[in-house]
TrEMBL record:
Reported function: Small subunit of the glutamine-dependent carbamoyl phosphate synthetase (CPSase). CPSase catalyzes the formation of carbamoyl phosphate from the ammonia moiety of glutamine, carbonate, and phosphate donated by ATP, constituting the first step of 2 biosynthetic pathways, one leading to arginine and/or urea and the other to pyrimidine nucleotides. The small subunit (glutamine amidotransferase) binds and cleaves glutamine to supply the large subunit with the substrate ammonia.
Gene (UniProt): carA
Protein name, entry field: Carbamoyl phosphate synthase small chain
Organism for this UniProt entry: Echinicola arenosa
Region (CPSase): 1-177
Pfam families from the UniProt entry: CPSase_sm_chain (PF00988), GATase (PF00117)
Subunit structure comment from the entry: Composed of two chains; the small (or glutamine) chain promotes the hydrolysis of glutamine to ammonia, which is used by the large (or ammonia) chain to synthesize carbamoyl phosphate. Tetramer of heterodimers (alpha,beta)4.
Length: 364
């Protein structure tokens, strides 16, 4: 059977023609690339990728299908995928379905049989930009009109759209440590790592008030990862300021890291093309050791603001571009990192950060 054609149009007018994967239709979002060699299922279900079109640099995608137990959220909220060689046949014995069927069931339109290396080099040169994938529009002028409707990621608030609508519990209710987790787009493996260390978690929607969270009596607070621009999340920054005033332990990951920085007066900015992959080198300044990390972010904290803030210490730096990758507060028991120590997918070099959080709680 002949494959259906699809078109990828970038905001700067660059066009790629390929074949349709996933749902027949038209989807737009910010195009970015992930350099991970495995773990496409975890990437597609990471809420931090909401509204983004993912270019996989690994040439073969779909060959091990999809398994229900390895999702990072209840559904995939990406705007689309771009791959080189796509396999509708999967070889993993315990897979529940093909990736193509999964994409269709989640309403995701993708494109295959394109030169992903060329696309990645283009994004690295020109920067992340909006793009659109379509199997419906043959006329580029019509497709351009559809692309113009796609909102820019800068200034976009998404966490309140992807977070849980009602609080829920994870872990053993008899555990000695209770952590209130603010859900800005939390990954399930973060909660697994906390529960594995004897934590009882209550996950709250992004816009929950401090009063409601404190009524549960948590020992500490966790600030999750998530999508969108931290600079427009005043509701979260105000709540985090209130949390910090309690002097309880706080740990933030990715967007949570950026929001903690905003709460202490450090600005954030949109990066040229971001960090997304499983092989990003980080130096822990406190220990002097390096670690290979999993990352997924298009925003970062301003290094100059961080260096000039007397109450903040830089704890981790990205060795490729010297950007700030971790901070801790000098006057309060709070710290955060820009990358993903739960690393699903990815290396486990940074899992110690969850142990550091538990020690901070026990010693507070």
């Amino acid at each position: 059977m002949d494959k259906q054609k699809a078109t990828l149009l970038l905001q700067d007018g660059t066009v790629f023609h390929g074949t349709l994967i996933g749902k027949h239709g038209t989807n737009g979002g910010e195009i970015c690339f992930n350099t991970g060699m495995t773990g496409y299922q975890e990437i597609y279900t990471d809420p931090s990728y909401t509204g983004q079109i993912i270019v996989n640099t690994t040439p073969h995608i779909g060959n091990y299908g999809v398994i229900d137990t390895e999702v990072e959220s209840d559904s995939a909220t990406i705007a689309g995928i771009v791959v080189n060689s796509f396999s509708e046949v999967y070889s993993r014995l315990d897979a529940s379905q093909s990736l193509n069927d999964y994409l269709i069931s989640n309403g995701i339109t993708g494109i295959a049989d394109v030169d992903t290396r060329k696309i990645v080099k283009h994004i690295r040169s020109k920067g992340a930009m909006n793009a659109i994938i379509s199997s419906e529009f043959d006329n580029l002028e019509d497709l351009q009109k559809e692309l113009e409707k796609v909102p820019d990621m800068a200034g976009l608030e998404l966490s309140s759209k992807v977070c849980t609508k009602e609080p829920y519990f994870v872990g053993n209710e008899n555990a000695s440590i209770k952590v209130a987790c603010l859900d800005f787009g939390i990954k399930k493996n973060i909660l697994r790592n906390l529960v594995d260390r004897g934590v009882y978690c209550k996950v709250f929607p992004a816009k929950t008030s401090l009063k409601e969270m404190e009524a549960w009596g948590p020992n500490a607070y966790f600030l999750s990862n998530g999508p969108g621009d931290p600079a427009v999340m005043d509701y979260a920054v105000d709540t985090i300021k209130e949390i910090l005033a309690l002097n309880k332990p706080v740990f933030g990951i990715c967007l949570g890291h950026q929001l903690l920085a905003e709460a202490v007066g450090i600005k954030t900015y949109k990066m040229h093309h971001g960090h997304r992959g499983l092989n990003h080198p980080i130096k822990n300044i406190l220990s002097g050791k390096s670690e290979i990390t999993s990352q997924n972010h298009g925003f970062n904290v301003v290094r100059e603001d961080t260096e000039n803030n007397p109450s903040v210490e830089i704890t981790h730096v990205h060795l490729n571009d010297n950007t700030v990758a971790g901070i801790k507060l000098k006057d309060r028991p709070a710290f955060s990192v820009q990358y993903h120590p739960e690393s699903s997918p990815g290396p486990h070099d940074s899992r110690y950060l969850f142990d550091d959080f538990i020690s901070l709680i026990n010693n507070n």
